[in-house]
Q: What sequence folds into this?
């Protein structure tokens, strides 16, 4: 059986979900990786579709995958991102999910997205897993200053900057922005002495700058890897109320303190396991179960 891991870029396809890919390699599947050119690879393998399985992640790759209902495969939806409030887009995704559901497995990381599509599709092959998974990093954090780390990207900062400013206004913390090299025009003239940009860093350095981690609202992804890292590394987390609901953390017995629209979470790892090894196993088991169902249908000529 060939398994194609596809994403919005070849780099994402090869570097994300390493633990999951390791589990498939142990079973001696033929693993290949592709960016958004993967539909061309499907066309090249039209004569052997019964021995091909597609695993897609990230929004663009997932949308392309939805237009291939004749291919067996699994979707990992990180989140609808900036389109989550677009009713037309959500309706299109819902229609394509139902239309292609016979040969597909759907896994959502955002609990809010999962609830929406489960409710309106009533599909039995639709599940939710809390993110991609995080790694535990142990180190000394500098407790001298009330500082919080926020992980973002240049193409996301415009969607969450208001929430970051709201956090600074409320708590008067310094905020370290990881993933962006400068604060940009919208942040320059507003508490710029409290905002520090460090650009891109290695994963094991992300949480070394601050005492706290903050999860602002605005972008609409699922449970980010940085948030999972913070949970697993037992960092105290300030999360916006909207994200607290969207991630589904409210379902667990987590120690929290409420500060208006912000929630401080302590000891999250004791209530919910988001380690990459654990979550990768959950993804693996769901996909293997779906593969076995696919093989059973083939044997019965369905």
A:
């Amino acid at each position: 059986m060939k398994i194609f891991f596809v994403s919005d870029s070849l780099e994402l396809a090869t570097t994300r979900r390493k633990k999951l890919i390791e589990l498939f390699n142990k079973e001696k599947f033929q693993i290949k990786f592709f960016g958004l050119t993967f539909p061309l690879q499907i066309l090249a393998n039209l004569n052997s579709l019964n021995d091909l399985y597609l695993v897609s992640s990230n929004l663009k790759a997932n949308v392309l995958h939805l237009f291939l209902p004749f291919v067996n495969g699994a979707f990992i939806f990180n989140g609808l991102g900036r389109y989550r409030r677009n009713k037309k887009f959500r309706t299109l995704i819902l229609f394509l999910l139902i239309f292609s559901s016979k040969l597909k497995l759907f896994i959502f990381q955002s609990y809010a997205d999962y609830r929406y599509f489960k409710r309106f599709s009533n599909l039995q092959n639709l599940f939710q897993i809390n993110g991609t998974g995080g790694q535990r990093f142990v180190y000394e954090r500098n407790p001298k200053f009330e500082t919080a780390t926020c992980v973002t990207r240049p193409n996301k900062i415009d969607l969450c900057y208001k929430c970051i400013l709201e956090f600074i206004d409320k708590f008067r913390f310094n905020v370290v922005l990881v993933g962006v090299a400068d604060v940009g025009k919208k942040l320059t003239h507003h508490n710029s002495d409290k905002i520090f940009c460090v650009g891109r860093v290695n994963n094991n350095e992300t949480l070394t700058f601050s005492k706290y981690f903050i999860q602002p609202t605005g972008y609409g992804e699922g449970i980010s890897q940085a948030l999972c890292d913070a949970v697993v590394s037992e960092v105290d987390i300030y999360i916006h109320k909207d994200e607290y609901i969207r991630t589904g953390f409210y379902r667990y017995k987590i120690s929290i303190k409420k500060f208006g629209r912000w929630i401080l979470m302590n000891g999250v790892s004791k209530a919910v396991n988001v380690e990459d090894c654990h979550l990768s196993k959950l993804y693996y088991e769901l996909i293997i179960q779906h593969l076995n169902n696919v093989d059973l249908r083939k044997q019965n000529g369905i």
